[in-house]
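Lay summary. Proteins are chains of building blocks that fold into shapes, and those shapes determine what they do. In this project we predict the shape from the chain. Here is one chain we studied, written as its sequence of building blocks.
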Amino acid sequence: MSDVHDDYVEGDINTIDDDFDDADNGASAQAITARAALEFIATSLADDPSAVSVEVSERQGKVVLSLQVSPEDMGRVIGRRGRTAQAIRSLVAAAGARDGVTATVDIVD
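And here is the predicted shape, written in a compact code that computers can read:
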């Protein structure tokens, strides 16, 4: 439940920032929770959070979130045997379902 006296906290996964770079894109407007979740997770994992970028596109009726991190953080985001990447994909898919879209994550090197 939301409280009227809740304060906005920048970067909090429960609050949505409206300053996305490509807010004009229809796919971005559909997957705002999924994008916010991915950005929060990726910046939390990365040693260099300023190098994290997420681009939203639509492919075959699905929203595709392309995640790019610095080369030093790539191993941390993927994890051993891809377990961290798979967990990120599961969480983002659940956030996308909340938005009513099918969301997938591509990790771009």
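What the prediction tells us: The CA atoms of residues 79 and 85 lie 7 Å apart.
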